[in-house]
Specification:
The chain has about 130 residues and is mainly β. Helix content is about 0%, strand content about 60%. It has one domain: Immunoglobulin-like (Sandwich).
């Protein structure tokens, strides 16, 4: 018997590279984006001591991009970014966040990825290859 989300793509590799004022996050998926329901991809970045946290997310509904944002837990503030910063190419989603999205977390940041389908967590604490951090 398959799980309720067996047809939903799984994260197979996530990388993040900081360059100047941009933070490029690349999500490689096991299969194409679902064309029905909601699907959320994201990165959690925390300070080394976990006292500060940012949540960078990309949300799709019925295969369409509906949100591209950063949530700052200390300020309880969500910043919505221009959706043109997200591209979907087959099984790869690339998001170009402002580097300020992880500002103030210092060096030694802890960065992990997550995915959700229809409001249910699929993967959490998925390792992220980082560059320029």
């Amino acid at each position: 018997m398959s799980s309720p989300h067996s047809s939903v793509p799984q994260l197979i590799r996530v990388s993040a590279a900081e360059s100047g004022d941009r933070l490029c996050v690349r999500f490689e998926l096991s299969k194409s984006m679902p064309t029905h329901g909601s699907y959320l991809l994201g990165v959690v970045a925390t300070s080394e001591d976990y006292s500060h946290q940012r949540r960078l997310s990309i949300e799709f509904v019925n295969g369409d991009l509906v949100d591209f944002s950063t949530f700052n837990h200390e300020q309880v503030d969500q910043e919505h970014h221009n959706r043109s910063g997200v591209t979907l190419d087959g099984t790869t989603v690339t998001a170009d966040f402002p580097a300020s999205s992880i500002g103030g977390l210092g060096r030694g940041r802890v960065v992990t990825a997550y995915s959700h389908a229809d409001g249910e967590q699929l993967q959490a604490r998925f390792p992220v290859d980082t560059e320029g951090f």
